[in-house]
Amino acid sequence: KNRKQIYVGESKNLKERIGNHFAGRKTALTKQVCSQYNIPLGEEMREWMTKNCKFAYLEVSDFDMCHLLEALAIAILRKKNAKLLNTVKQKQDLPAERKTELYLLLPKFF
Predict the structure, then answer these.
(1) Closest CA to 84 of 17, 49, 33, 26
(2) C-beta of residue 24 within 8 angstroms of C-beta of residue 44
(3) Where are the alpha helices (DSSP H) in 53-87?
(4) Separation between Cα atoms, residue 8 and residue 10, nearest integer Å
(5) 31-57 burial, b for 16+ CB within 10 Å, e for fewer?
(6) Are 91 and 1 in contact (CB under 8 A)?
(7) Integer distance in angstroms from the first to the last C-alpha of the chain?
(8) pLDDT digits (tens, 9 = 90+) for 26-65
(9) Would the pTM of this model clear 0.70, i.e. be above it?
(10) I want to staple 105 with a disulfide (CB 3.0 to 4.6 A). Which of 7, 34, 38, 109 is the partner?
């Protein structure tokens, strides 16, 4: 299958963050999926995420490097015309310094 990335993110607690996505809870990603694919939160979102998505991740210990890699991955993918669901982050949206992990959402259906 030809897979394309549709979301790049970071998380302090990757297991919890991905669990929230796959549970269909309201997250930055599921809000965008709701908007772009017209899939409601809850059970339908959980089923859609389980059926159509997989995650790949890279652990990055350095806080600044994680932000840099996230921004770089988004910029490169957008230059390649990837249809990312990411919204543009503002400086005030960035979290306080902490260990974070970078991840990509790879839909199964592309």
Answers:
(1) 33
(2) yes
(3) 63-79
(4) 7
(5) ebbbeeeebebeeebbebbeebbebee
(6) no
(7) 7
(8) 988 898 888 888 999 999 999 988 888 888 888 888 888 8
(9) no
(10) 7
